[in-house]
Amino acid sequence: MDRLKNLVGIVTGGALGIGRATCLLFAHEGAVVAVTDVLDTEGAQLVREINSSGGVAEYWHLDVTREAEVQDVFSKIRNRFGKIDVLVNNAGISGANKPTHEVTEQEWDKLMAVNVKGVFFCTKHAIPYMKAAHRGSIINLSSIYGLVGAADAPPYHASKGAVRLMAKNDALLYAADNIRVNSVHPGFIWTPMVENFAKQSAAGEKDFRKMISAKHPLGHIGEPNDIAWGIVYLASEEAKFVTGSELIIDGGYTAQ
Length: 256
Ligand code: NAP
Description:
Rossmann fold, seven-stranded parallel beta sheet, 256 residues, binds NADP nicotinamide-adenine-dinucleotide phosphate
């Protein structure tokens, strides 16, 4: 219940999917949660849910592609709660799913703006608060697609490889400040992102799910909480000696 007691955590893209599950578990484990997203209705609803079940959360609109907005919102969160202990760089999009030679510059830039530049902006503007407090934990949502290829979604693969290495480099840059930086690598998790992907697939939603499930040795797609518990661990003192590492939670996908 108290694994994150007295910690203040920011979750980007916190209104849906893995971000939403993370906000709920953070609150359950005693953290004060800054829920941020571009989906204001869903974000506000989540905050009501957390606060009505005894947790502490507040919602801020935050598009991670806008540096001035990131700086402003983080400053407001710091002023409201007194500190920023944990940053979960979760906001992400799946982007164009076509071969590299068909991807447009616009499609490439759109995805990189959210999945890579967004992580850069959020890390950049969280670090000064963490340095001043001489503590912090930053968790970048990478993917199995940041570890191995799958012959699809080229910009997504590139972006997830980038945030994996950004975590390692930032881990080294800020270790002396007692700021830990790690990446998390989910297999397929049933969230609105994957559900939309499934709906658009030529196979249809049901067969897509079956086909994707078969790629995971455990035989099924994961749930948002499977990832959120890993994020809780990395945010907590239990992981005080863990930095620059990759937490793979993928039902065995990359063990093959
Ligand atoms: P999701 O269900 O689509 O939720 C992501 C949230 O981020 C949505 O609320 C989304 O809003 C929001 N968002 C999009 N662009 C944003 C921006 N510019 N600024 C702030 N928020 C923004 O995604 P998910 O499946 O939970 O994925 C969460 C993270 O895990 C992502 O980084 C994803 O790449 C990673 N991941 C997911 C899986 C998986 O199988 N689900 C596997 C590996 C890694 P909109 O709905 O309006 O876009």
